Amino acid sequence: MPPEELKKLQYEELKTLVTKLYESNQFYRDRMDSKGVKPEDIKCIEDISKLPFMYKQDLRDNYPTKMFSVPNNQIVRYHVSSGTTGKPTLVGYTENDLGYWTEALARSLTSAGVGPEDTLQVCYGYGLFTGGLGLHYGGEKVGATVLPASTGNSERQIELMMDLDVTAIACTPSYLIHLIGVAKKMGVDFKRDTKVRVAFLGAEPWSESMKKKIEDETGIETFDIYGTSEQAGPMFTECECHNGIHIPAD
User: Fold this and answer.
1) Total domain count for the chain?
2) Domain coverage including residue 17
3) Which of 229, 204, 228 is CA-nearest to residue 77?
4) Does 34 share its domain with 72?
């Protein structure tokens, strides 16, 4: 999309969103009113700087559903954060939200070369955590075969990885390092005995030294993946240039 058209699209989406939030949600209306901002004040994409911030405490104070901007009959799923630092964060999803989420993950996987010829082993947790389902739907969207392995049972994970010719894996960096150790105890060498070529690692911090350790020992190309429950879940990743996270401009 040409830059001029993209900027126009971004503005139209922003204007629509601000108007909807102001008209349908008391929290956002009050927050914008407190800063003297009305939907009609958003005249270009740069006017996003006029909008007030939202904070983590706002999510806790309005738990569980006071910040939702659609009626409950449009919510098709809930995900919940761990709540390790306080009251958990509840996120509601509409069908449209799930579509955007799936599309974002599909783009991320595509940017790393994952497609219909691949088998993706998803070792993030399923359930209330967003990691597993996000990569799962993204993998299916690009035509990959998805193995919903979730976490744990590591020896079985290694066996399935070999039996099913897994070519891509998604998990935390620490769990992949753990799998490398388990594989060694089983007499399995990642480079020799598996076909895994790419890994999508996130949900926790990891260093360049961890990246080097994983890539040197396994021959796997690693991709950083980022997301938060508040915006849907894991969504953004690197491309093959490995020079930072890409956020789709549209």
Assistant:
1) 3
2) 1-53
3) 229
4) no
Judging by DSSP bridges, how do beta strands 145-147 and 198-201 pair with one another? unpaired
Say whether both 189 and 117 belong to one domain. Answer: yes
Residues 89 and 193 in one domain: no
Using CA atoms, how far residue 2 sits from 5, 8, 103, 165, 245, in Å, is 5, 10, 20, 40, 21
Alpha-carbon separation of residue 91 from 79, 112, 206, 215 (angstroms): 5, 28, 26, 35
Q: Residue 218 is which amino acid?
A: T
| pLDDT 10s digits, 173-203 | 999 999 999 999 999 999 999 999 999 999 9
Same domain (yes/no): 31, 86: no
Residue 85 pLDDT class (50, 70, 90 cuts): low
Contact 177, 142 (CB under 8 A): no
16 is written with which tokens?
């629509």
What is the maximum alpha-carbon separation in the chain? 65
- The residue ranking higher by pLDDT, 231 or 91, is 91
Q: From the CA atom positions of the chain, what is the Rg in Å?
A: 20
Whether 247 is in a domain gets the answer no
Q: Which residues contact 42 (CB under 8 A, 6 or more apart)?
A: 14, 15, 18, 48, 50, 51
The β-bridge relationship of strands 233-237 and 221-228 is: antiparallel
What does DSSP say about strands 168-171 and 198-201: parallel, antiparallel, or unpaired? parallel
Q: State pTM to two decimals.
A: 0.91
